[in-house]
UniProtKB/TrEMBL annotation:
Span of the signal peptide: none
InterPro entries the record matches: MerR-type_HTH_dom
A biological-process GO annotation: regulation of DNA-templated transcription
Protein name: HTH merR-type domain-containing protein
UniProt GO molecular function: DNA binding
Organism encoding this protein: Caenispirillum salinarum AK4
Length: 118
């Protein structure tokens, strides 16, 4: 039977999937807010994004020695901002792509002009 990729994972399933993650570590990051899974029937329900974030946190703390909660919070905040900006840029690029060729060309020329001002 194939697992439903949209079904949230339980805590035990997350612990099985994320190498190096212990229950104590997971609870610590839940407590600090580094990971914020959805609540399903009063329990955390972990999505793929939560699993990826936990894998990143394990890598940062274990491989890169980012052990301080404040430092981890700063790194995660910066990565969240970067991800948000990337999402915004993709949206903007799609909007530009839907414009007539003359408008796309004018935008490209304006971007080149503005880059030259730096």
């Amino acid at each position: 039977m194939i697992a439903d990729p949209d079904r949230p994972l339980t805590e035990d399933e997350v612990l099985e999937r994320v190498a190096g993650l212990t229950r104590a570590m997971l609870h610590r990051w839940l407590h600090t807010g580094a990971v914020r899974p959805a609540r399903i029937q009063g329990l955390p329900g972990y999505r793929e994004a939560d699993v990826a974030r936990l894998e990143l946190i394990v890598t940062l703390t274990e491989d890169f020695d980012v052990a301080d909660d404040e430092a981890l919070e700063v790194v995660l905040s910066l990565l969240d901002q970067l991800h948000g900006l990337r999402r915004e840029l993709l949206c903007l690029a799609r909007a530009v792509d839907h414009q007539p060729p003359a408008v796309r060309h004018a935008i490209l020329e304006e971007v080149r002009r503005l880059r030259g001002q730096d």
